[in-house]
Amino acid sequence: MISKKCKYAIKALLYLADHQEEDRSIFSSEIAEQELIPKKFLETILRELRNFQFVQSKRGKTGGYKLLKDPKEINLADLMRAIDGPIAMLPCVSLNYYANCEECDEKICQIKP
Known about the structure:
Blueprint: H1 4-18, H2 28-35, H3 39-51, E1 55-58, E2 64-67, H4 76-84
Antiparallel strand pairs: 1-2
């Protein structure tokens, strides 16, 4: 299940992608208003997206946010991992965060690939 935070991150990135041709930075307040996302929550999400190198930010009167990559290069699974953490339902099947499950015998486990 995708969290509300992840849905908002997707909406924000889509908004930035749709306005990429305008060659301007977009304020978080514009995204929040147009996409109906609570402004403070969006600011937290955008900081995380910046830290994970999905967007760049610029302060000041001409500041705002822009995508760092071509929208076609943005991988939804990478975005979900950045915002929500591991996607796998069990730690033993996680691609990036593998861990043994408690009380599991890996030799006979039928879940692990």
